[in-house]
Amino acid sequence: MINTLKKNLEALRDKNPLVLNITNAVVTNITANALLAVDASPVMAYAEEEIADMTSISKALVINIGTLTKEQVETMFKAIETANALLIPVIFDPVGVGATE
Question: Which domain holds residue 37?
Answer without folding.
Answer: 2-93
